[in-house]
Amino acid sequence: MRSVDAAIEAQLRASLPDAAFRLLTPAYLEEPRGMFQGVGGLLLAPGSVDEVSIILRICNDARVPVVPYGGGTGLVGGQVMQDDRPVILSLERMTRIRAVHPTENVLVAEAGAILADVQSAAENVDRLFPLSLASEGSCRIGGCLSTNAGGVNVLRYGTARELCLGIEAVLPDGTIHHGLKRLRKDNTGYDLRALLCGAEGTLGVITAASLRLFPRPARTGTALLCVRDPSAALDLLALAQSQLGQGISAFELIKGTGLEFLTEAGLGGPQPFAKPPAWSVLIDLGLGPSDDPEAALLTLFEAAQGADLVSDGVIAQSQSQRAALWKLREEIPLANKAVGAINSHDISLPLSDIPAFLTRADDALATLGPFRVNAFGHLGDGNLHYNVFPPAGEDKAAYLSQRDAIRAAVYDLVAEHDGSFSAEHGVGRLKTDVLARYADPARLAAMRAIKQTLDPNGIMNPGVFFPPD
């Protein structure tokens, strides 16, 4: 692999407009957790799919690595190359909403469009684009698709891959894949859309996508209900689904530790309970115009209380109260960062295995040290963020030597429960060794074969999925 040098830069400058060349500031060489630091490179911001094609063709011929860059919000180091000077290909100039088809429930956006702007474009035609993330004000739709982002609404609407109907992308040799179809049914061979979504920039660069829209729920409702334990939370989910069907947009599990961290960090705003409950569930509904979400949540609460699943709860009576409840959930990651995690684990499990896993994982960590655990996340789709912290009043630096032991304990149990060590954050450069250890050998071999076939020169985001050669 060849670092970008003066000769390659000269060839690129002769082939691209001046607007494509940007100043490489430190922000492009860092990632949110500070775990990866780039060493340099050439920052390019193409303005069209044709310019992306030119860049990849030149880089492929010269064997120069290319790191696709969206909003820089990824949490596994996929956007930062540490050991070389690559071309950093930012989609920040490709931000257009190319078309909106309300009657088809389809929106076509370029990959550099900010997620919040895609949501607004859908709202402008009275539609909903349901992908919702904490970073939606800065992450870009191309990055969301490349990492198959999840978020809080997967239970009802699916992941980013499921919200994508078609893809325009540039393959490593510069070939443009014109796949921006708006079809729900297209059985014409291998699904390149599904392959590129979740490939984390290792098979090409997504430049635009056709996205699924939905009717906006006419009425919404939110409740925070105190549950006895995760097992009761699962029973509550089953009860809610039997009563409300597809009306449940989100079902979030919150451990009392998370609420305590909010207080400790001065985040989240006022809390509705005098003492944080050991476990609680945040339920969000999206219903039709003739439905009463507050009444539906009250009926659910009464039935759950009668079944000894909940002990207390708060039902939002206004949009401001709804926002206040969601603020608690959305700022837990900020509180985690303020407290300082030793390890963070983005895992998924079969729903019925979650209670047993949580008990076993806590017991396993107790043998390693007096750690605090904040387990929270998207219970409705089985995705938990299982984060490990030092004892109260102590600094994580004293426990960093135990990171590998903690990670192994957690991931070994995840594997025993037939779960995944990466639910929605991806593999990136952070978890290449974990992928090698836990992935099914046949799947890993197929991934390597696909990579070799589509990117034989290995220029696309080297080091992601597989350690660099």
Low-confidence stretches: none
Shape, please?
Answer: globular
Number of helices: 15
Average residue-wise pLDDT: 96
Helical percentage: 25-40%
Structural class: alpha+beta
Q: Topology, pairings included?
A:
Blueprint: H1 6-15, E1 42-44, H2 49-62, E2 66-69, E3 87-90, E4 97-101, E5 106-110, H3 115-123, E6 127-128, H4 141-146, H5 154-157, E7 164-170, E8 176-179, H6 192-196, E9 205-212, E10 214-215, E11 219-227, H7 230-244, E12 248-255, H8 256-265, E13 279-287, H9 293-306, E14 310-315, H10 319-330, H11 332-339, E15 343-348, H12 354-366, E16 372-378, E17 383-389, H13 403-416, H14 432-438, H15 441-454
Parallel strand pairs: 1-3, 2-3
Antiparallel strand pairs: 4-5, 5-9, 6-10, 7-8, 7-9, 11-13, 11-14, 12-13, 12-16, 15-17, 16-17
Helix pairs in contact: 1-2, 7-9, 8-11, 12-13
Question: What can you tell me about this protein's structure?
Answer:
The chain is of the alpha+beta class and 469 residues long. It has 15 helices and 17 strands. The protein has a seven-stranded antiparallel sheet with strand order 14-11-13-12-16-17-15, sandwiched between helices. Strands 4-5-9-7-8 form a five-stranded antiparallel sheet. A three-stranded parallel sheet has the order 1-3-2, covered by helices on one side. Helix 1 packs antiparallel against helix 2 (49-62), helix 7 (230-244) crosses helix 9 (293-306) and helix 8 packs across helix 11.
